[in-house]
UniProtKB/TrEMBL annotation:
Monomer. Associates with the 50S ribosomal subunit. It comes from Rufibacter roseus. The lineage of its organism: Bacteria, Pseudomonadati, Bacteroidota, Cytophagia, Cytophagales. The gene is hflX. InterPro entries: G_HFLX_dom, GTP-bd, GTP-bd_M, GTPase_HflX, GTPase_HflX_N, GTPase_HflX_N_sf, P-loop_NTPase, Small_GTP-bd. SUPFAM superfamilies: P-loop containing nucleoside triphosphate hydrolases. It comes from the Bacteria. Its main location: cytoplasm. This is GTPase HflX. HAMAP family: GTPase_HflX (MF_00900).
Length: 399
């Protein structure tokens, strides 16, 4: 009986990561960026076996890395039967072709990896159409060689979701036609979404924004008492989710939106117009930050830059420093080295440079429900101001 059984489980795909950091970039920063790339790789279900780093003045125009490093990567890939090589930057079509010729495995750059995660996460018809449009826009200039690249691994896998999964497209005209059809479909969705947003135009609208995996969905569930999907993986939320929230009889709409990330593909930003419209049309932004992350300041800058790209940088913002429980654990370890009995307190964050440089700022732990009452107080203060400006007759009498 045992001999008649067949294994149907698919083996986990394996990957190696490659980065060419600038000379002035520190080793710590390079490690952090590759940690993020490894997290992206894990999110799509692949296992990272090794990392390759080569410092160059600029990436090689032909193969991204130098000849010696490419030989080193090739030898490792063949010896360990690696399924794919993932690069922390975008590759040109010629670089993809040259690397495929040398390595004879799937070549994935950062944008394609992020697009694959979005394809995995998209649940609604709108989100799926947005991701598919971004994929086709990405693939069009790479069409000549990319389709054979995508068809090399039978049975799916990373970079196999969506376009190219069931047949090999060889005609640019067909791909352009699909892009046109998807644009038309999204225009219809945009009109529907616009009508929905217009129908609730009188109510104050608040959007959660932030770097990916900072806890926006957890906070959304906490404030709205809903069950938005939340997971400790990148881009757990792709579809915009809107919930009505009432604090002290003041109603407002709270939106959970897609997380931003370093080097977010431009094509993806262009395609996710309807989702990003939730941010553009909001009255107030809750910018959630993972304060326990060593590069949270860079994450703030990335989000601010993205908000500028989508014409939303001038909106009122409350900075919400989340995951203070993890931050306090790190801080306690630091203090114990000098003062064994020292215990950090969340109150000290209120007088820190983070609070001084970012006003208004609230420090919370959504997972532990720490300081949520203070967040509700600050949020109510800002929402009430907007609400009573919009409905002055409802304003409480002045004392």
């Amino acid at each position: 009986m045992r001999n008649q059984l067949h294994v149907t489980a698919k083996e986990q795909e394996t990957a190696v990561l490659v980065a060419v950091p600038a000379w002035r970039q520190t080793d710590e920063k390079t490690k952090e960026y590759l940690d993020e790339l490894a997290f992206l790789t894990e999110t799509v279900g692949a296992k990272t076996l090794k990392r390759f780093i080569q410092k160059l003045d600029k990436p090689d125009m032909r193969t991204y890395v130098g000849k010696g490093k490419l030989e080193e990567i090739t030898a490792y890939v063949k010896e360990h039967k690696v399924d794919m090589v993932i690069f922390d930057d975008d590759l040109s079509p010629s670089q993809v072709r040259n690397l495929e010729r040398e390595l004879e495995v799937k070549i994935i750059d950062r944008s394609l990896l992020i697009l694959d995660i979005f394809a995995l996460r998209a649940q609604t018809a709108t989100a799926r159409a947005q991701v598919e449009l971004a994929q086709y826009r990405y693939l069009l200039p790479r069409l000549t060689n990319m389709w054979t690249h995508l068809s090399r691994q039978k049975g799916g896998g990373v970079a196999m979701r969506g376009p190219g999964e069931t047949e090999i497209e060889t005609d640019r005209r067909i791909v352009r036609d699909k892009i046109t059809l998807l644009k038309e479909k999204l225009e219809k969705f945009d009109k529907q979404n616009y009508e929905q947003r217009k129908s609730r135009s009188g109510i104050v609208r608040v959007s959660l924004v932030g770097y990916t995996n900072v806890g926006k969905s957890t906070l959304m569930n906490l404030l709205s008492k809903s069950d938005v999907f939340a997971e400790n993986k990148l881009f757990a939320t792709v579809d915009a989710t809107v919930r009505k929230v009432v604090i002290d009889n003041i109603p407002f709409l709270l939106s959970d939106t897609v997380g931003f990330i370093r080097k977010l593909p431009t094509k993806l930003i262009e395609s996710f117009k309807s989702t990003l419209d939730e941010i553009r049309e909001s009255d107030l932004l809750l910018h959630v930050v993972d304060v326990s992350h060593p590069s949270f300041e860079e994450h703030i800058a990335v989000v601010n830059e993205t908000l500028k790209d989508i014409q939303s940088a001038e909106k009122p913002v409350i900075l919400v420093f989340n995951k203070t429980d993890l931050y306090m654990e790190q801080r306690e370890q630091e203090l114990r080295e000098e003062h064994p009995d020292a215990r950090p307190d969340i109150a000290e964050l209120g007088s820190s440079y983070m609070a001084r440089e970012h006003t208004p700022a609230v420090f919370i732990s959504a997972a532990n429900k720490t300081n949520i009452d203070e967040l509700r107080r600050v949020l109510l203060e800002h929402v009430s101001r907007i609400h009573f400006e919009r409905y002055p007759n409802n304003a409480p009498p002045q004392e």
